[in-house]
């Protein structure tokens, strides 16, 4: 009680010092004395920081004559698995919730969301991921959207997966546009189960102008993809996000790096995602593979997923570790790209853990390059840096053995 009393005194004193006895008119970002109740409520009852409360109060005001209304909203939220953190996050996103009617607005929506599967902790999760639910009509928007989605998703599990991943579907006018575009896709020969996969993986890909959908479908077909092909959906997802001119520019970038158009299409058919990256990124990635690692272009064609690997976080650190092992004759040399393709766990087991005692400092060296984006080592520099790590590890080990303490 004493702490709460002191906190309130300090709060009101702070308000007075900032807003009373001032001859300077309040700026748009400075609350007036009339907003002190809103700020106080947001800080003391909702858990917002003073700065956040000031920001919210510039756009939203509570009526100090009916303080029981926002208090009842808070109690309602907390009775539906909203933690203090959830409450604060929701207020920042949508402060209007504090003025909502519980029985005519919040309760019907919450009850419906629980009914369709968003129970327990899932309820605040879905509300926070799309706070528009609070201000959207349940009868004319949310329910029709749910009913429409269930027509195409044949299980509760699929429905929940889609909505958790794309909660905006609940408040979007999906019944009109989505129905139109689904009809377009099916008319163009896309099977219903593929349309379902679109909804699960990337629903925004079919929230497009119908003409754009038709062009993308036909473009992918002309590249040799059948609509029943499992890769069709991935190729379509890439093409719907780029214009024809962007596609041509990326083809030209690949050609400038030594690929034929036939090779490029082979790579695209194996991994459509390989051409979803920016032209600059494709150019820089290929430059490292060709000029530093000396990979053959055919290696890229057979493994087009290489274009999606981060040079800084994955490729360069692994490359330098293998260069060290090669220089110390622990491996015979790098051939192909198996060391890039394998998982992080397998790479560590095969190329670091196995040599951890023979090459002191190898792990620290590897992690150091992964963390430092500016690290670019070549040749003798790699060996010198590693020697530094090895010397340090050896020094610490000697001290540990001498003093019988652990480092």
Characterization of this structure:
The chain is mostly helical and 407 residues long. The protein is built from 22 helices and no strands. Helix 10 (174-187) packs parallel to helix 12 (210-222). Mean pLDDT is 83; it is low at 1-31, 375-383 and 388-407.
User: What composes the largest sheet?
Assistant: none
C-alpha termini separation: 48 Å
Strand percentage, roughly?
Answer: under 5%
Number-wise, the strands total: 0
Helical residue percent?
Answer: 55-70%
Gyration radius from CA atoms, angstroms: 30 Å
Q: What is the 3D shape?
A: globular
* Unreliably modeled segments: 1-31, 375-383, 388-407
Order of helices and strands: HHHHHHHHHHHHHHHHHHHHHH
Annotation field: number of helices: 22
What class do helices, strands and sheet pairing give? mainly alpha
Mean pLDDT: 83
Summarize this structure as a short list of keywords or feature phrases:
407 residues, mainly alpha, 22 helices
């Amino acid at each position: 009680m004493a702490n709460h009393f002191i906190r309130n005194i300090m709060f009101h004193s702070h308000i007075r010092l900032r807003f009373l006895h001032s001859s300077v008119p309040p700026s748009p970002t400075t609350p007036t004395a009339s907003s002190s109740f809103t700020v106080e409520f947001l800080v003391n009852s909702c858990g917002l920081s003073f700065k956040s409360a000031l920001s919210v109060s510039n756009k939203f005001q509570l009526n100090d004559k009916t303080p029981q209304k926002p208090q009842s909203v808070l109690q309602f939220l907390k009775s539906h698995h909203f933690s203090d953190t959830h409450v604060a996050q929701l207020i920042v996103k949508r402060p209007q919730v504090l003025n909502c009617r519980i029985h005519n607005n919040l309760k019907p929506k919450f009850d419906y969301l629980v009914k369709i599967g968003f129970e327990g902790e899932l309820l605040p999760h879905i509300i926070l991921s799309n706070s528009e639910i609070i201000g959207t009509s349940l009868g004319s928007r949310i329910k029709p959207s749910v009913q429409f989605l269930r027509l195409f998703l044949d299980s509760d599990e699929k429905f929940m997966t889609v909505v958790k991943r794309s909660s905006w579907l609940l408040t979007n006018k999906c019944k009109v546009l989505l129905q139109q575009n689904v009809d377009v896709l099916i008319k163009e020969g896309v099977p219903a189960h593929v349309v379902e996969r679109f909804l699960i993986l990337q629903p925004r890909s079919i929230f497009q102008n119908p003409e754009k959908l038709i062009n993308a479908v036909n473009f992918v077909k002309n590249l040799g993809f059948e609509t029943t092909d499992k890769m069709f959906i991935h190729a379509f997802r890439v093409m719907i996000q780029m214009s024809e001119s962007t596609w041509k520019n990326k083809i030209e970038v690949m050609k400038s790096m030594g690929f034929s158009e036939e090779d490029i299409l082979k790579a695209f058919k194996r991994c459509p995602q390989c051409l979803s990256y920016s032209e600059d990124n494709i150019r820089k990635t290929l430059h490292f593979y060709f000029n530093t690692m000396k990979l053959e272009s055919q290696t890229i064609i057979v493994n087009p997923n290489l274009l999606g690997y981060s040079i800084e976080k994955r490729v360069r650190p692994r490359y330098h570790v293998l260069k060290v092992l090669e220089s110390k004759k622990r491996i015979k040399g790098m051939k192909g790209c198996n060391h890039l393709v394998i998982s992080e766990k397998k790479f560590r087991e095969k190329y670091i853990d196995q040599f951890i005692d023979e090459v002191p400092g190898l792990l620290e060296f590897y992690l150091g390059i992964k963390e430092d984006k500016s690290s670019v080592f070549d040749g003798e520099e790699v060996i010198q840096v590693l020697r530094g790590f090895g010397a340090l590890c050896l020094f610490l080990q000697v001290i540990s053995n001498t003093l019988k303490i652990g480092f």
